[in-house]
Amino acid sequence: MEFKFGGSTENQKTVLGHPSGLFVLFFTEMWERFSYYGMRALLVLFLVTSLLDEGWGWDRADALILYGWYTSLVYITPILGGLIADKITGYRKAVFLGALIMTLGHLSMALEVFADPFFYLGLVLLIVGNGLFKPNISSIVGQLYKTEGKEKDAGYTIFYMGINAGAFLGIMLCGYIGEKVGWHWGFGLAGIFMFFGMLQFHYAQSIFGKIGMKPAKTDSFIDAAPGVDIQEDENPDLPEVEVPKHVSNDRLKVIGIFAFFTIFFWWAFEQAGGSMTIFAKDYTDRVLVDNGALIFKIFNTLLTIVPLVIITWVLIMLFKQTFKKYALSNIFLGTSFVIIWAIVIWMLYREFNSEQSEVPASWFGILNSFFIIAFAPLFSKLWESKYNPSGPVKFAVGLILLGLGFGILAYGSMSIPQGASTAAVSMIFLIFAYLFHTLGELCLSPVGLSYVSKLSPKKLVGLMFGIWFVSSFFANLLGGITGSYIDVIVENYSMATFFMIFTLVPIGAGIVMLLLNGKLIKMMHGIR
């Protein structure tokens, strides 16, 4: 019997036309992203909040530089994590160990209320754990598919939907509890779901067959040869199809070029947790009363409930396919959803009983995740259709859309006086900026993950994912440093000038990528 997908017999059962194992990874990554983005939403806000409000009272510049270092280092450690998995542990053990270390990191951050060093220890553990987790779970996704075409692109886009479902819930719930109840409660909540994600993955990992085991046990990682029929998933020693050296080198160069251009994207995009969060906190009118408050409460309820219903529906479909074989994993996953629903209902009830609404500054971060949940299926279908553009064109469009989003913020900021430390700009500008940023992200990020998987030599997939994430190290570090000049630029020029920098640079990079399209297609040697 020929298997359509890699992994075990159970993995041949499909959810939404994709292997069940994809959704085991979907929910594992969802809870990891819940923890990461939930903490990230609070980091700068916690640091700049006054001591009277239980924050640390840091200057904006110092907070944004620490934010830049943290968000950059979580992308440099994956290169080491990819090497460890490729050479020593295999992907699956690396994912589990990384999840465990991150769980301990969130616990440590929750203890910052007792002593400041716990906060820094937590950041270090999160950086280390992420290095083991991030590249290797993406590598497992790639090996679920035996072909290198549209189906894998669609699979990565669905996986990316899971990433953003976690980010959506993490920013909303950790942000709300951190700002409204207590910072350490928000940090601690992030760790609870990291723990559930770890257990869910651990007790379902046999669904992957020999994918992701130690390299010595599966030297060619089962599915290494595209187009080769694997019978019963029991022959891990099939040789990899030989690729001429010049072809392999050209493809690696393409990965390098894509990685370089992603620096421009994430450099601007990651202002979301830094300067854009400060813009939301100090320059945006977030207090709503009367009808405005009621409209927001209704909108916020729909914004919360609809995506959660969709994700719960996906959960039920996975249960139908895997509960009999992986009951314990599904029980941990189901328990985490019961807790999530309980917190959401409590939050919405609490908000509806308040006379006015002050939108949390962290709330705007959920818009990116919400738009991805809403638009990812559309983009997934688009990439499978005859209208599927080339990778370089997707990258270029993503960069240009990102720049346009910052152009909206620059326009909205024109009314802010030079040197102003506070203002009351309409929320609509942030909302539309996040929409354009999201559409750009959907054109670039999941496609980038898919191209790394397709263009990399199979025995170096984990390493190449690690190198891919190094580009985000430079992007986040530069983004944090650039963002730290927000006060200097606003004082000497204007807020509109600050955001115009992030408008022009990505659009310029996108135009260059369009010019390189033909050359890059040739260098990919048939990979689409």
From TrEMBL:
The chain crosses the membrane at residues 34-52, 64-85, 94-111, 117-133, 154-178, 184-204, 252-269, 294-319, 331-349, 361-383, 395-414, 420-439, 460-481, 493-516. Residues 24-520 form the Major facilitator superfamily (MFS) profile domain. GO terms for cellular component: plasma membrane. One of its GO terms (molecular function) is peptide transmembrane transporter activity. Its main location: membrane. Coiled coil: none annotated. It is a multi-pass membrane protein. GO terms for biological process: oligopeptide transport. Belongs to the major facilitator superfamily. Proton-dependent oligopeptide transporter (POT/PTR) (TC 2.A.17) family. This is MFS transporter. It comes from Planktosalinus lacus.
